[in-house]
Amino acid sequence: MASTTIETASAQAEAQPSELNPPDQEKGGRNSPGIYTGQCCLSDIWGRKVILLTTIGIFWIGSLLCGTSVNMGMLLGARAIQGIGAGGVVTLVNVCIGDLFSVRERGFYYGLVGAVWGIASAIGPVVGGVLSSQASWRWCFYINLPISGIGIVLLYVVLKLHNPRTPLKEGLKAVDWCGSLTVIGSTVMFLLGLELGGVTHPWASPLVICLLAFGLVLASILVFIESHYAKYPIIPLNLFADSSNFGALTTAFFHTMASTSGSY
After folding, report:
1. ∠ at Cα 32 (26, 36), nearest 5°?
2. Is the overall model pTM greater than 0.70, yes or no?
3. CA triplet 7, 73, 10: central angle to 5 degrees?
4. CA distances from 149 to 77, 124, 161 (A)
5. Higher pLDDT residue, 39 or 229?
6. Count H helices, E strands: the chain?
7. What's the rounded Cα separation, in Å, for the pair 234 and 34?
8. CA 99 to CA 117: how far, in whole Å?
9. What is the mean pLDDT of residues 50-75?
10. Under CATH, which architecture does the 1-167 domain have?
11. Where do the structural domains in the chain lie, given as residue ranges?
């Protein structure tokens, strides 16, 4: 619900330049792509529960900073922090279901997650509109604080998953730093090129062409790093060797494109 509620908040924030100075910010800034880091790989090292609680905490902090933003730059930075937390929550919920339930039972729980997503996406704009018109756009972010806080407490008490208890130093050594930085850089540049192209800059402009080209170059470097260099790759390429895995991942890719396209 946060993603659809915040669309209303972003529009209201832009419509109230007296609250967020300076007022002459780029209109396209509120749709900047988020950065989804390798929380799944971190959860393999330090455990699902620890990383899930951490990502909810990051989302909580990001929401608080968004609600208290004093200018558009602070709001955009806080949205990036919130996006990192949200990306971990969305991903790790599915990972935890895979750990907790058998293949036969997982479909039911994945269906529940999808139902919650659908309902929240439908009521999100309504809630955002009511909060923005009756109170303030800031409450579109503040509403996340009690919900996230309750979620942290419940998960801490109820969620029972294996914790590998990896020491911090050993865990940091196991992180695929080169792969993580490369996938982040490649994704951000390529998506930023797609976002700016035809909106704030012509498709043929040097900025857009360079963003798209260097995004693809980094993607190629990522493949080399993951196949020849990384000891514990963030994207194990052997996942794509099996035809069943490849088909499932391809289906998930296009399904995600279709299900989230409405937000853009």
Report:
1. 160
2. yes
3. 10
4. 22, 19, 20
5. 229
6. 11, 0
7. 18
8. 21
9. 89
10. Up-down Bundle (1.20)
11. 1-167, 176-256
